[in-house]
Amino acid sequence: MNRKLRMGMIGGGTGSFIGDVHRKASSIDGMIELVCGAFSSTAEKSIQSGKDLFLAENRCYGSYEEMILKEKELPKEERMDFVAIVTPNHMHFPPAKMALENGFHVVCDKPMTLTLEEAIELEAIIEKSGKLFALTHNYPANPMVKQAKALVDHGDLGTIRKVQVQYLQGWLSTDLETTGQKQAAWRVDPSKSGIGGALGDIGTHAENLVEYITGLKITEIAADLGRFGKGRVLDDDGNLLLRLENGAKGTMSISQIALGEENNLAIKVYGTKGSIEWHQENPNELVTRWLDEPLKIYTPNGNKLYPSAQISRIPAGHPEGYLEAFATVYKNFATHLIAKLKGETIDQPDYPTAKDGLRGMKFIYAAVESDKNNSIWTKI
Amino acid sequence: MNRKLRMGMIGGGTGSFIGDVHRKASSIDGMIELVCGAFSSTAEKSIQSGKDLFLAENRCYGSYEEMILKEKELPKEERMDFVAIVTPNHMHFPPAKMALENGFHVVCDKPMTLTLEEAIELEAIIEKSGKLFALTHNYPANPMVKQAKALVDHGDLGTIRKVQVQYLQGWLSTDLETTGQKQAAWRVDPSKSGIGGALGDIGTHAENLVEYITGLKITEIAADLGRFGKGRVLDDDGNLLLRLENGAKGTMSISQIALGEENNLAIKVYGTKGSIEWHQENPNELVTRWLDEPLKIYTPNGNKLYPSAQISRIPAGHPEGYLEAFATVYKNFATHLIAKLKGETIDQPDYPTAKDGLRGMKFIYAAVESDKNNSIWTKI
Amino acid sequence: MNRKLRMGMIGGGTGSFIGDVHRKASSIDGMIELVCGAFSSTAEKSIQSGKDLFLAENRCYGSYEEMILKEKELPKEERMDFVAIVTPNHMHFPPAKMALENGFHVVCDKPMTLTLEEAIELEAIIEKSGKLFALTHNYPANPMVKQAKALVDHGDLGTIRKVQVQYLQGWLSTDLETTGQKQAAWRVDPSKSGIGGALGDIGTHAENLVEYITGLKITEIAADLGRFGKGRVLDDDGNLLLRLENGAKGTMSISQIALGEENNLAIKVYGTKGSIEWHQENPNELVTRWLDEPLKIYTPNGNKLYPSAQISRIPAGHPEGYLEAFATVYKNFATHLIAKLKGETIDQPDYPTAKDGLRGMKFIYAAVESDKNNSIWTKI
Amino acid sequence: MNRKLRMGMIGGGTGSFIGDVHRKASSIDGMIELVCGAFSSTAEKSIQSGKDLFLAENRCYGSYEEMILKEKELPKEERMDFVAIVTPNHMHFPPAKMALENGFHVVCDKPMTLTLEEAIELEAIIEKSGKLFALTHNYPANPMVKQAKALVDHGDLGTIRKVQVQYLQGWLSTDLETTGQKQAAWRVDPSKSGIGGALGDIGTHAENLVEYITGLKITEIAADLGRFGKGRVLDDDGNLLLRLENGAKGTMSISQIALGEENNLAIKVYGTKGSIEWHQENPNELVTRWLDEPLKIYTPNGNKLYPSAQISRIPAGHPEGYLEAFATVYKNFATHLIAKLKGETIDQPDYPTAKDGLRGMKFIYAAVESDKNNSIWTKI
Prior knowledge:
The structure is a homotetramer. Chain A is an alpha/beta fold. Chain A is 34% helix and 22% strand. The first copy, chain A, has two domains: 5-131, NAD(P)-binding Rossmann-like Domain (Rossmann fold, 3-Layer(aba) Sandwich), CATH 3.40.50; 140-313 and 358-379, Dihydrodipicolinate Reductase, domain 2, CATH 3.30.360.10. Chain A is built from eleven helices and 14 strands. In chain A, strand 1 (5-10), helix 1 and strand 2 form a beta-alpha-beta unit. In chain A, helix 4 (93-101) packs parallel to helix 5, helix 5 runs antiparallel to helix 11 (354-372) and helix 9 (198-214) crosses helix 11 (354-372). Chain A binds chain B through residues 161-162, 164, 166, 170, 173-174, 222, 224, 226, 228, 237, 239-243, 249-251, 253, 255, 257-261, 268, 270-275, 288-291, 295, 374-377, and chain B through 161-162, 164, 166, 170, 173-174, 222, 224, 226, 228, 237, 239-243, 249-251, 253, 255, 257-261, 268, 270-275, 288-291, 295, 374-377.
């Protein structure tokens, strides 16, 4: 199989934020090429988007249904291998289901689905299909997050006692959705976002990061959600207490009305032997603290990294960013898919799957339920 | 009254941490001199401590009772003006009460008392006595905290929506109290600390800082306390949700088992027009964020400070620290006391009083109650 | 011209650092595809490298000469549009010359050539050829460097008085070249690097950044070069005084033996009205200082950027890194080339050219001369 | 000798910057009391200053001559032990000489004298007098500078190869001296400052810090001085190359026209085994880099400090600042003086002396000479 993987995109028309991210991220490592897309809700717009991307007109479709069906009929050596779903939340499940049931692998943006029911159903569909499914929780793909996880896994931190996680943005501080801003409009609309606002958009990232690094499940949460924007029915802010399966405790603070914050995802994990601290906005440092040693800062391709963290593409001191981590999700998915297509059996590379997606949906539902019940502890 | 104020110290024998802090802080501005002390539980030890401080033997007393009674009999031009109480919590109320009732002003370390009942009683005693009472919540005395408060007070941040406060230490990560370490021993002992462990020691600082900067009361909290050290009955960790009187929400994370953290008190306040962020360990920066402006960092004696923040003793760029802020509490108290002794009437300078102390005790009690009730929302 | 540009690569076989960087950077924006390469010194190795890159065997050449000649004979709709030269310094000029003279545009790594004579000749060849030539000084392509330049250009900093630039690495602290490390081996070898060691490798980046941001030429330098590694004949360290054409003064410190430094390129520029500070390792902040304002920090896609700095691909707070800036050089070159191929006339997008390359070579020569003359001031 | 040391101050009238610093710094540790002063040029002003300091009128003198003579006649148990000289540079030598020759110990601000000749003479006077002399280079007294020195002294950094030091201020960016600002006025006046402007005021601190930490002498320098302020005859900016006695090289950048900089003294030292970096504005961190280890940050009272660095007065995480370091100079001087007065022989505590003062003056003279000779290398 000496060729690049062929990707079809669902959503992500010209001007889209996350569609463009998926395109750039999937192209960095030279393993994937975009061959077709149902970028927009009309064929015309889709073709226009495709043109900007140097795609042939006949591979630009007016709907995901059309794309899946037509691609399926293309000769094997031409048709797409997998779809990348980059639409708003309510349009994750239908195309994912259809793609899987028609023999295509899937990369899907998060949160996995609109509802918990869909998530449960999708997990079953994936299993039945035998196809690969990747969920683009990109943050765990940062080298320094890998190092944090490796420190936990090797027992270097001892027993985890305390976790602090925050994901703070300020872009919905004003009532941006009333200005025609599309990104804002769908995110505050329950029919497109689901029952969680900030919870789904960024809370799931925070939840996923905690469980990824610690290897521990969050078992219950107590949530106090805010709806600060005028007329908002979905949360734009959340303050949560966390309890983890091993008895560790913690806090989660998420917000899209934390004025002036850009994309401040950060986590601290405290153990009985060591602690870690990582900030997404400064991703190339992993701060660690120790009982008897000075504070130590690990860096990508720097000294004394565990093998799983040695994934940087460039030498130490050459900063990596958001796109590189996102690209690693695609790279690991592509590595897996290529092996599968070759009929090889390999250990699954480290990328998020439907399991992560289901955890995320359960987290959203538990948080909303706790909030409705004046923040009582609620099981995830 | 062309003389320094005369201070008598209760507690703070040789080797004490906080007693030494009070002595250094009270001496920086040249307005106060230490003239006597009941430093330890025996006259012998007290005299030894006094010797190291170049005090006359006859001004080193074996008990606070003795000191108060003997000093009261000294000629007016010789006897102490006020006492500084730097003992563990259970020894705050008795000497404070006796000093006030015998005509001495009081500076007292926090938390104000062992119990809420004592705090209420002490407030009444102070009022009745007509004497001054300062509680050494030192953190609000940092210039950059003053600037943060001024930004709020002038409406620059708009309406406050969200608060995040943390006070993280790691020094009780191990079971230090079993090693004979005195500081640790009394802090984990309810008979000396009261019903709050980390809550009283550092939580009250966090609570005080939130209310000081925002000018808003925390009306209710939901608390999940941890007791991670072996055999500890008092909290050594706490995760709290906050609701403020204006509808703002927030989190508080406190810990003395956050391994590797030194003295990480930090606060973020988000409003509808601007936001602030301050870190005690890097106290000479106030980070601010704005709707339409780049991030701005204020510095002591730097550009564009409000007058109330222009309290630095040294030029911009010459870092100030913990002792300087502590000294400002003493300086403002001393300024007030000098005016009072001169018979002048002045606006009370900005230092914490029994009101702050009572809030702190109520906070501890509400947190403990919430925790007992599986973190239900509890009014302060 | 609805197609991607076609790139042929010279150098950059499997395991190469900078070749891989060029491949990734050129692919991010979906405007360029790699179609052929002379990756190594033998056809066999070249084919192996090409395989990893999913290239057809017949487009993997054993030498750049072969590639240029064979590609030239391919049908227009198939053959490469430009070459990317990613070989060691001594192999920049010959392929660049040949490519240009055979009708291909060129992207070339820095420093431009092995010798100053070659640089002068190359500039003439480029002009005569009418082809585009881009030199991959990637650092000016960072959004925050663009903002710095814009602040200068708009006069916001007033008159520039002082510049401080450093480019510090530590990877040659040990005698790495004796261990078989290829990157180290050619860099300390004058026949491959030219007369400058650290000067050529990183000093030219520092020089370029100063002139780019300030818009001022460095007119003379006083250089004290170090050769700390055992047996090294080329500089591995340099300390320089700078004088700029407007009377501004400054320092430059470069090193590859600054143990522990990873890739610490940083610059400060001080004017009569404002100042800027930028660090490559933390590229998403531009620190600025002002006469009467607090320190302000600009961020990519953040508030109040000049249009020329609004080039980020992702929203504020999503960190960009080394590859993204590198990609911008390719993007701007590609935009230019596409316009040219379409016969359109556009303003040249902002990417470094042979002018920058020539300045760099003159800088190296002046520094070496000054050093030979015990650091006397030497004109560039 | 169970009493505080008695200090008389020369200069430092109300409103003075450095006089106030000396008073606060000398009082923090409770070992020194201010008993008299010749604060201003008239008795009247001096008395007014003394009043603010709660001094008796008869101990406030109209001139240093009067103070020295009158204090000498006071009974031993009352008269001052030493003088603190906090006047502009031209008024360092005369009172220092007179004090020493009349039996008083001396603490003196830097630079030590107005001219190199005075410095040489003063050193002889001190030696002859048998009195103690401390020069208040305060920066080496920071705990993290002590740790840096200890790392060098213990060989942890290996052989020093490169040094980068900067001391950047911006307060003379405008022509402040024309506005009646006293601090600015004398500093730009050669009759009061000597032949160095920024060189004397801050360059000597930079030079002293390099030699203190590395234990190496700067043997020669190449200096390019700037005089950017209108009409200034003294340097307000300087860029220097350094050569150290062991073959190490480096740069020094000093400025008082680096607009927006507050008090940015920073140093990096690179060895063959490790490196250190320290910033005065963030003094409670010592950044260290290592061949095979991650970056490590030491903190005051934190883990793994050498004994000589364990001098913090407060627990880890409680920031120390400028005054605390300054106080340490006084504390060490006082410890020495008390021992001497008691007739005890002790190792000299670590505080700067006339040797440092003489190095500083030689540095100023070499820099000015180099600059006059178009930056040729000049021996210190």
